[in-house]
Design brief:
The protein is mainly alpha-helical and about 280 residues long. Helices cover about 80% and strands about 0% of the residues. The longest helix has 26 residues. The termini are far apart.
Length: about 280
Amino acid sequence: MIEAIFQYEFLQNAFLAGAIIGIIAPLLGAFIVVRRLSLIADALSHVTLSGIAAGLYLGQAVPSFGAVNPLYFGMIFSIGGSLLIERLRSVYKHYQELAIPIMMSGGIGAGVIFISLADGFNTDLFSYLFGSVSAVSRGDLFAVMAISVIVLLTVFLLYKELFILSFDEEYAKASGIPSKAVHFAFIILTALVIAVSMRIVGILLVSSLMTLPVAAAMRIAKGFKQTIWLSVLFGETAVLVGLFSAFYLDLAPGGTIVVTSIILLLVIIMWKKERN
């Protein structure tokens, strides 16, 4: 595959995009898991699916939309879904967890409608659902690179605020941190990362890349910063091993990446158990 990467543009796109996603997805995932919002990635991935299906439908129904990458529709829907989740969390103050299944149900329902309008499943939609090595375009790669820069800068500049907000929201508010603004920025970044990750991992599996490496890191890390570094290491390992496996075995990369993440998690759990 190393030689093929230098020969074929689609492999360069997939390899570089996967390597970047292997960093930013677990990075945000560490904050998501600590805040006990792991299922929010699932909800936003289903909302993103409805956006992708809407983009594919509009591409068929309106010729002028045919040249627009459905990824951008997915981003718009994902951002809108993240903002709606926050709105629902404020409506159900004592039952905030209801916001996630409500949005997940809405995303699935809208996705099914748009898929039906677009005459059912097709090759493009399957590549979004389960990931594809050959489907990552140069435009997709540029989108991943742009969002990764925004994510890294935001985490670097707002690390203290995100850390405090993740562990003690009440203290964050009392200490003068603009918790609502920081949280909105974080949730929008999460939505964007989910949207751009689906070409590699697939919409139905992208949440796994944000949680499984973190679950493995938490078993052996001695602090939050170490959890982040180990999460990124495990995420990157899962993506690269998964991409190589998908290329040689002709499989969907989403499945190989997730299975690799699970194997890493099981190995670490057993190693930790033996050590104890």
